[in-house]
Amino acid sequence: MPDTYTFLDSDRIFEQYDANHHNDWISNVDLVMIFDIGDYRRLGDITTVINNYNLITMNIDHHPHPNSNPFSHNVVDLSAAATGCMIYDYLKTVSTKPLNKKSLECIYTAIMTDTGCFRYSNTDEKCHNIVIECLSANVETHVIYQNVYENSTKSRMRLMGEFLTNLQYELDGKLAWFEITQDMMHKAYANNDDVDGFSDMVRTIRGVEVALMIFEQKDDGCRINFRSKGRYSVKDIAKSLGGGGHAFAAGAVVPGTLNTVSEKVVETTIKSIEHKMNSST
């Protein structure tokens, strides 16, 4: 679990997959439940275990998935603003008592982060109604916000300064893109958690419609992250690169060297936005 969210684990019940400690246990489970993954490939090393033991999987998500996805069962609601809303509905259906404060803290955190603090266009009335219930249960929403968004590490600040000085603009500033290299990560003493939210930050720049992050991975390939203010969809761009997501928040993992991937992704993104700009005139 990322350090940012350890405040939700006061009872220390969450565990992170470790092959040496969990493989024997996993081999005997009845069902693997997977939440808000977006793409099966994002499961990483645990996919090998799932496949080796032929485990039954259930995907609970609000992201679209291709019909040929490898999950055994899919519970997907594209209309849900957040997967946390789906979990809330399930718990309300099966629970005979009101949801307790700890459960609501987790649900609030899930919805808050999935809707960009209730700023994204997917935020709906239901999200706010759930928030009202959380407030009624004395959930300290300001404390959750501080833990998630006002708890940056010094390494994150160093990394942020580095990439902001090298921010690139295309299409008269409508597209802003940047690279996070492994060398930058090393110099800043940063980890992957420090990168979260950078694309959202760049999207807030005046005049920028689409923000693009190209994050070099330790192994071959780059993680691509798109954020759009809403004028231009980025889901189709991510899909053309082998990824997916929402209309205005999407991503992909693209194999290849940083230079090769950057050139391909930036060119593809520019062409897509140009086409959309011309189509709207």
Sum up the structure in keywords:
single chain, alpha/beta, inorganic pyrophosphatase (n-terminal core), Diaminopimelate Epimerase, Chain A, domain 1, 2 domains, six-stranded mixed beta sheet, three-stranded parallel beta sheet, 11 helices, 9 strands, 41% helix, DHHA1 domain-containing protein, nucleic acid binding
What's a quick, concise take on this entry?
Helices cover 41% and strands 16% of the residues.
Structure write-up:
InterPro entries: DHH_sf (IPR038763), DHHA1_dom (IPR003156), Oligoribo/pAp-PDE_c-di-AMP_PDE (IPR051319). It comes from marine metagenome. Residues 187-268 form the DHHA1 domain. This protein is an alpha/beta fold and 281 residues long. Helix content is 41%, strand content 16%. The protein has eleven helices and nine strands. It has helices spanning 19-26, 46-52, 83-94, 101-114, 125-136, 141-149, 154-164, 182-188, 198-203, 235-240, 258-279; strands at residues 32-35, 57-61, 73-76, 168-170, 175-180, 210-216, 222-228, 244-245, 249-254. Helix 3 (83-94) packs antiparallel against helix 4 and helix 4 (101-114) crosses helix 6. The model has no long low-confidence stretch (mean pLDDT 93).
